Fold this sequence. Notes:
It is built from 18 helices and 24 strands. The chain is of the alpha/beta class and about 525 residues long. The radius of gyration is 24 Å and the shape is globular.
Amino acid sequence: MVDDDRATTPDASPGPTPHDGPLLRMRGIVKHFPGAKALDGVDLEVRPGEVHCLLGQNGAGKSTLIKVLAGAHRPDSGTIEWRGAPLQLASPVAALRAGVATMYQELDVVDGLTVAENVYLGHELATGGVTRRRDAHARTAALLEQLGHGDISPQREVGTLRAAGKQIVSMARALSHDARLIIMDEPSAVLDSEEVANLFRVVRELTAAGVAVLYISHRLEEIRQIGDRITVLKDGRTVAASLPVAQAPTAELIRLMTGRAVDQVFAARPPVPDDARELLRVDGLSLHGDFRDVSFSVRAGEVVGLAGLVGSGRSEILETIYGARRATSGTVSVDGRTLRPGSVAVAVRAGVGLAPEERKSQGLLLDEPVYRNITLSTFARLANGPLLDERAERRVAREQIDALDLRPADPDRTARTLSGGNQQKAMLARWLVHGCRVLLLDEPTRGVDVGARAEIYALVHALAQAGNAVVVVSSEIEEVLGLSHRVLVVADGHVVHTGPADQIDEHRVLDLVMEGSAA
């Protein structure tokens, strides 16, 4: 393989496909890592102008495959053809030059740079070594307008955007390369239903122009809406190739991904005892510029869900309850005790735990072992004098690993190597070790595969049944309604509806959200 940034193919420049065959054909792709075979003979074929969906559980090999295609990994064996000619990719730059752009699930924007600088990072618009900032701003503005987000300024620092805004910047970067194939890895994970509809509009415009999209998602309902064909991976192998979406029943897709049937229907909510005491009370809570006059309570054994669009204030409400933001007014009480605002330490001591939306950047120490991530909030209790008792750390971590069926069951494995579902379990284990009774879960199944979702749903209900109070935020309205006993609908920073989850449906929630946002 070549060692420079060129893609070795007779014509690596983007442009119309010169034949009637596939745009991309991968055959027998194998990739080893120390102690593991990530890919074991994967086949994939993508046609021009189609949305090809790549499915599989966490650990199936999806991420490794797209990194091979993006030039980040070199396969140990197998062949890649691009527009009918052999292709070898020495680097991500080579992939971009060949016409392959990738949007990774883990947002790869640089917070310290502006939106325009991020969009043209690595292929800056310059003449004679001088950056053409005005051109970059104008082109970035046009891309953002195409994406339905002309309100984002090209000169805004990316670090000031929330996750959904950063995803838009990542999409603009992919579009800026004039690619013939765009890989979208969980692009809707941080988007609400309105943003997803906008994403699908952009995808349809791209495919109408002949661009192919390789779409990776755990949300099977999205595959039905946007996909043309499906390839399924399991344990590093292709178990189904190029299935037409219309000929792939959901139950069969789940069986192919997991090797077993998985009931996607939410289990019955455990009943809340009539005499259950109030564990969390929020009274008139406001945070200037984000939300105002929010009041609700949660009893032991109850799950309360917050539904609303991205930017409605849902996540900020959780962060303020947790003390990560200082409320402008209002109070938070746990088990009858009013908490001092703006103090995470006070909230945690009172028994409040938060599993944040961005668990990798805000919740986990990715390069530390699992046991250290689980015991992170309990160091004082596990100290032996001035030093931590690592034997005690491993013992309590092992108890939670077994109780939550965290896999692989290795307390010394680094958190970075866990699947999304098991990282989420590690976050929950941390608060269970600490003895938290009020659990705040922000997007608990983001980036989690269908099998692990069922486990997390069961775990949330088990936590409630054990007498904890749980508050859940999710962009998936179906998830909020399926998990919760009661639902608060949040629009434009205020609660527009409160009521039992089984007395409202997804369409009514959307109506309330849109009516509240327009008010």
